[in-house]
């Protein structure tokens, strides 16, 4: 960051110094030009005053009096007739060239080159009588300009010094939070997410600091989730693998009766099935997390979809002396969904109803619409979900307490998959449960219902 502060400082200094140099040059030129114009105006006014005096009395005494007055002043005068002959002068120098050029003017500036000429000169014409030439030595103007230059030089040095100090302070103030952000990113890179950058406002740097804080918080959460996830997977696999190894060792005993051998083989088969289900769920979650699947939405007739679903699940419910009842609107509804994914959602929810409901109970699959939104609810008469478990049931590997159905407890991933798939459909899922009345899952798929015009256009 030192290099950055130096680069920023130099860049700011060059920009500001160039701007200040331009402004100083412009101001200096303006002041000098203004000052010279003031001197010329003052000289012209003095010549006009003499002209007014001589216009009324263009006599030798008056002319000599004018010349005498200027000998005592800082300016000089030359009075000539119409032909350019000098009648009176406060100068000892021959100014024929100046007089000759001034006779072409009625009134105005004859010479204003104060940098190279010894005098600035103005002329005032006396109608039908002569001319009044006023002279001012340029040494006084140059002295004034030299003082002005000294003032500008000193002011420029002070301004440059203050500019450097201000730029250094600004560079430090700008780079300091960047240094802290760099240190924070190094911490994040090393795996330490316990950072907290200070709030420095709502500008770009402030927003960047807030973003880094949010990133650290998210990464910390992800790290904890990953650790928990790995711990849960290890735990979930360890138990069935222990059973598999233990019962496989028992089955290998030669003296083991056939009945017990078949019993242990059945347990091994169940545990292998449990591991297979867990692995399949993990693959499904991995695809969802890595966006490895694409939603293949297409318009379908909802009645056909539900008929197929009922035909597929009814035997499983019948086998357990349970009933699956479907309620849906009578009119033909066309929905835009990924039918395979929605079937997967309903499979998980209906499978839970099978696991946690008593025999001779009924599960209702109810469908209704609200404008373009599709609603699906699954209502069972099972044992329900305990109130303390409700806020957590969609978390991965979370499983509530099911004392009456411990043998049917799944991997704890099914509802997590359901939640992810509903979200992928731009939908939402809610749950209500009571130990007496059972559980109700309600799914809302936003914008899934199509009208005939939409269907035709597709």
Concise account of the structure shown:
The chain has helices at 2-56, 60-71, 96-102, 138-189, 204-251, 258-289, 302-319, 339-356, 414-424, 452-457, and strands at 75-81, 86-89, 107-111, 119-126, 130-137, 298-301, 323-327, 334-337, 362-370, 373-379, 427-434, 438-445, 449-450. It is an alpha+beta fold and 458 residues long.
How does this model look, in words?
There is one protein chain. The chain is an alpha+beta fold. The protein has three domains: about 1-145, PAS domain (Beta-Lactamase, 2-Layer Sandwich); about 205-290, Signal transduction histidine kinase, dimerisation/phosphotransfer (DHp) domain (Helix Hairpins, Orthogonal Bundle), CATH 1.10.287.130; about 300-455, Heat Shock Protein 90, CATH 3.30.565.10. Helix content is about 55%, strand content about 15%. The chain has ten helices and 13 strands. The strands form three sheets. The chain has a five-stranded antiparallel beta sheet. A five-stranded mixed beta sheet has the order 7-9-10-12-11, covered by helices on one side. Strands 6-8-13 form a three-stranded antiparallel beta sheet. Strand 4 and strand 5 form a beta hairpin. Helix 1 runs antiparallel to helix 4, helix 5 (about 205-250) packs antiparallel against helix 6 (about 260-290) and helix 7 runs parallel beside helix 8 (about 340-355). The longest helix has about 55 residues, at about 1-55. The chain is rod-shaped, with a radius of gyration of 50 Å.
């Amino acid at each position: 960051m030192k290099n950055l502060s130096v680069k920023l400082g130099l860049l700011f200094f060059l920009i500001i110094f160039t701007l200040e140099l331009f402004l100083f040059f412009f101001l200096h030129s303006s002041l000098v030009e203004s000052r010279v114009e003031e001197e010329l105006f003052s000289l012209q006014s003095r010549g006009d005053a003499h002209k007014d005096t001589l216009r009324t009395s263009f006599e030798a005494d008056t002319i000599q009096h004018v010349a005498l007055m200027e000998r005592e002043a800082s300016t000089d005068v030359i009075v000539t007739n119409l032909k350019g002959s000098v009648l009176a002068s406060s100068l000892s120098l021959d100014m024929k060239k100046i007089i000759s050029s001034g006779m072409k003017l009625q009134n105005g500036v004859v010479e204003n080159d104060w940098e190279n000429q010894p005098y600035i000169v103005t002329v005032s014409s006396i109608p039908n009588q002569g001319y009044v030439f006023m002279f001012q030595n340029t040494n006084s103007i140059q002295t004034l300009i030299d003082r002005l230059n000294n003032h500008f030089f000193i002011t420029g040095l002070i301004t440059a010094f203050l500019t450097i100090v201000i730029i250094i302070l600004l560079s430090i103030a700008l780079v300091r939070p960047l240094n802290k952000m760099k240190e924070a990113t190094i911490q994040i890179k090393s795996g330490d997410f316990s950072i907290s950058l200070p709030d420095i406002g709502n500008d770009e740097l402030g927003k960047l600091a807030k973003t880094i804080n949010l990133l650290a918080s998210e990464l910390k959460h992800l790290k904890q989730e990953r650790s928990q996830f790995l711990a849960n997977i290890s735990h979930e696999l360890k138990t069935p693998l222990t059973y598999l190894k233990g019962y496989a060792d028992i089955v290998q005993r030669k003296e083991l009766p056939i009945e017990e051998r078949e019993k242990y083989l059945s347990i091994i088969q169940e545990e292998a099935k449990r591991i297979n289900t867990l692995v399949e769920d993990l693959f499904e979650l991995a695809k969802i997390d890595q966006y490895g699947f694409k939603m293949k939405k297409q318009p379908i007739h909802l009645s056909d979809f539900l008929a197929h679903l009922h035909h597929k699940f009814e035997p499983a419910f019948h086998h357990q002396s349970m009933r699956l009842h479907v309620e849906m609107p009578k009119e033909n509804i066309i929905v835009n969904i990924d039918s395979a994914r929605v079937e997967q959602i309903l499979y998980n929810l209906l499978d839970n109803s099978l696991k946690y409901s008593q025999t001779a109970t009924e599960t209702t699959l109810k469908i209704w619409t609200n404008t373009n939104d599709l609603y699906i609810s699954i209502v069972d008469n099972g044992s329900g979900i305990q109130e303390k478990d409700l806020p957590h049931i969609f978390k991965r590997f979370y499983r509530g307490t099911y004392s009456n159905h411990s043998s049917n407890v799944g991997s704890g991933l099914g509802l997590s998959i359901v939640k992810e798939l509903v979200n992928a459909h731009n939908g939402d899922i809610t749950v209500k449960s009571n130990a007496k009345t059972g559980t109700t899952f309600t799914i809302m798929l936003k914008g899934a219902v199509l009208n005939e015009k939409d269907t035709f256009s597709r």
